[in-house]
Amino acid sequence: MLDVWWLLLPSSLMVILLLFTALTLAARSYRPARLFGIITLLLVALPITFDVAGRLAWELERRVEPPTELPQSVDGILVLGGSVEWRISRERQQLTLSDAGERLLAGAALARRYPDARLVLGGVYREDVESDFVAVPNEQSLIFGDEFRGRRVEFMGEARSTYEEGLLALERLSPRAGETWILVTSAMHMPRALAVFNTLGWRLTPYPVDYQTAGEPELFGPARTPAQSLAALDAAVREWGAIFVYDRTGRIEWP
User: Fold this and answer.
1) Helix axes 226-248, 162-173, angle to 10 degrees
2) Which long-range contacts (CB under 8 A, 24 or more apart) does 161-168 make?
3) How open is the CA angle 57-61-63, to the nearest 5 degrees?
4) pLDDT of 104-133, one tens digit each?
5) Each residue of 174-204: pLDDT tens digit?
6) Which residues are CB-contacts of 43 (< 8 A; sequence separation ≥ 6)?
7) What is the pLDDT of residues 211-236, one digit of tens each?
8) Distance CA 249, CA 252 (A)
9) Crossing angle for the helix pair 30-49 and 226-248, nearest 10 degrees?
10) pLDDT-derived band of residue 254, with 50, 70 and 90 as boundaries?
11) Long-range CB contacts for residues 44-48, cutoff 8 Å, separation at least 24
């Protein structure tokens, strides 16, 4: 599955087209080489000149609004995976956050707000953050405080997709009717994540974070380097691609 996603990313398609350009030039097939070269240039220029990535991200981020008022009491806080570089964290024995690190920070903030709520972290194992989510810090601790004294933080590192996280959460957490749970994930990812849990029959309060847009993007968008533009486009296309697959396979009901 990862190989398929790699092939479908815009940056990967550009590399493949460049390879075809080089091969056709080596074979002295100048007409195909010219065609591949022009297509590659257009694909590179489009996301750099126009804010295609911002438009794709905003179309998702605007679908789920952040809560105007948080619940008075909360039974659990579920933070979806993707916020921790777990291999680096484990090797360096220090918490290392990914580009979606706001998910974990928001989860910790909500844990302080609701000291009696269960805190569940997806995509990470206890050994990846041994120095964190503790009451008494050590030299490597970044997230700590009295709110974690005697608190059992639960981990769901096994899941490797949003759908697997939904299934695992239902099996392991066994939420009861009437309980209030907050779902934390990136704003661009929230529509698909919320649709997964809704389809599985579990209604959660969405708490989107890690926004990629400040509002509806302008045509030319913010100043970015070519690498930043392509990375942002890859992320947006990957999310839309996952929505398409989830919708077609019945994992979500997409409007």
Assistant:
1) 60
2) 162/80, 162/189, 162/192, 162/193, 162/196, 162/242, 162/246, 163/196, 163/246, 163/251, 165/80, 165/81, 165/122, 165/123, 165/196, 166/193, 166/196, 166/197, 166/200, 166/202, 167/200
3) 125
4) 999 999 999 999 999 999 999 998 888 999
5) 999 999 999 999 999 999 999 999 999 999 9
6) 10, 13, 14, 17
7) 999 988 887 766 677 788 888 999 99
8) 8
9) 90
10) confident
11) 44/14, 44/226, 44/230, 47/10, 47/229, 47/230, 47/232, 47/233, 48/224, 48/226, 48/229
Asked if 230 and 11 touch (Cβ cutoff 8 Å), the reply is: yes
Q: How far apart are CA 117 and CA 76, in angstroms?
A: 5
The order of strands in the sheet holding 153-156 is 153-156, 118-122, 76-79, 181-186, 205-209
Q: What is the number of alpha carbons within 13 Å of residue 49 lying toward its C-beta?
A: 6
Phi-psi sector, 8: left (phi>0), alpha (psi -120 to 50), beta? alpha
pTM value is 0.89
Amino acid (one-letter) located at 52: V
What are 54's two structure tokens? 């911002």
